[in-house]
Amino acid sequence: MTKPLASSSRRSTPEAPDPRVLRCVRQAALAGLALVLVWPAARGHSTWIGWMPLWLLGMPLSAWWALYRFRLPAAWRNRHAKPRKRGPQATRGRRPARRRLPQAA
Known about the structure:
The chain is mainly alpha-helical. The chain has helices at residues 19-38, 52-67, 74-77; strands at 45-46, 50-51. It contains three helices and two strands.
């Protein structure tokens, strides 16, 4: 008998992307980078497709990032996280009891 599938589509262990697709996307990004750096016309605007660096460099890089399921690099993951304080848990202070004045009848 087969096990039922988990209700969540995300898995706890990250999968590595297919190396063939990764190689193609990496080569497209590097070729786009070379074109943008070397050929001045690749830094311009085309009437058919728009801004050339977006299509030559930006889209292959975003596809490369999407293959890794939009994870951040390890150096950036906890860059701005504050370190946790190590110590006893804070407790609420007691208020001093209010004195009641005797009420007149």
